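Q: What would this chain look like folded?
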Amino acid sequence: MSEPWPLEPVLVLGAGPVGQTTALLLARWGVPSILLDRRPARDPVGSKAICQQRDVLDIWEAVGAGHRIAAEGLTWTTARTFHGETELFSYSFAESGAPVFPPFVNLSQARTEEILDERIAAEPLVDLRWDHEVTGITQDTTGVTVRAGDRELRGSYLVVCAGARCEELRRQLGVRFDGQSFDDRFLICDIRADLPGWAGERRFYFDPAWNPGRQVLIHPCPGSVFRIDWQVPADYDLDAEVASGALDTRIRRIIGDRDHRIVWKSVYRFHSRVADRMRRGRVLLAGDAAHLVSPFGARGLNSGVGDAENAAWKIAYAGRGWAPEELLETYHDERHAAARENIEVTTATMDFLVPPDEALARRRNEVLARAATDPVARASVDSGRLAEPFWYVDSPLTTTDPRRPFAGRPPRGQVPPAGPGVLLPDAPVVVPGIGPTRSRALARDGFLVLTTIGVSAPVRVLRLDEIDPDGALTTALGARPGEMWLVRPDAHVAAVLTDPADLGAALDRAVGRYSGPVFRTEPV
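A: My prediction, written as structure tokens:
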């Protein structure tokens, strides 16, 4: 950005992937940040969140990390589900447009953080500080002050990405964290082994002989590492199983008599919780600090990165005076709705995996018994609906279009048709003065109008027939003659219009109050 940031730096609390992404995206808008973490240094241990969804890779590409993460990660395209040893179904993932990234790649959270750290080291607008455990937050109408030991730091805004265990900070902000914790545990083992044919797929097993009455999930990772998650009872004792040799037996019942090495192991309990408020004044909550979901569907980290992008552009616009301060309230509106959607989806999965009563347990057993031969029953098997970008169709920033009504949550592996509130399909385009690029890269430079007619506006306007020579983007949009597509800085469609006179009102709605040309011109 050619204009300096007019306020104090933004404080970002927590240097995990959500905090790292927030700081890097703020820098992309020319906003300086101070990234604080309570740990003395990075602790690259274990796989943790491994499954990175295509549209999250696309966000990371905006800060120069997407292709690195995708290249180092292991690509998988098929999700297979079994009952015992019988395969019930498998599905692959639909593509809208011509996306540059695969549906999912698996890479350890530790390695993802290292790659993002490299980007932070090269970014002068991000000041990363370890050994800063924030214990107090106060704010006024012009900024936020945090206390870390005997130090105080002042910022214009604060984004709390400090993970689930920040109860005291939520309490100081007056934020509840309602929900539930599940009794069953999950045992995770990262093992290195040669398993031919397993590298391109995710496998989910209901009631296998080697974990009767419970589930097992297997994900491939780079370097011939496989992440295995076993559902285990609440009283499971990992140390006792290691000492007795039962853990080795547990692993061999899956992989057979193959050489293997345990790279990492852990036991976790999962939770389903969401903050009642994701914004308090000049403070935003993001990632696990704001919502926790069960791991089936990989909706934790992926949703947290969505929080980061939503927060970054809105802080940039509000702080620079391009939009009213009230724009920040739509962070809560949109990302709280996304969190509730994730809670709804993952709760349904958990009710199927761990039925809370006998009636649901009987239903699950009946569905699984029929699913091998009955397509209707197969559709009711819930092994986790995999992460997908949230659609802001009910957002106060979205101008609805009765010609393009939202049909609701699409089938597994599918994407909703393009329209207001939905993420812009990605496709190659050629822009005069820029050259070959991609539609989402253009959108993430600021508000954008894609049009099939000539129109003028105080934001960048591009005619589809001039930038889309192969028609891939026009086809993915389903763009009709006379339409104008207004796209937000996070690449979600804000409006689809046919009357140029409506464009100003749609822009007003998309930022709360539109007040000038607000798009990036410098390449990143």
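The chain is about 30% helix and 25% strand.
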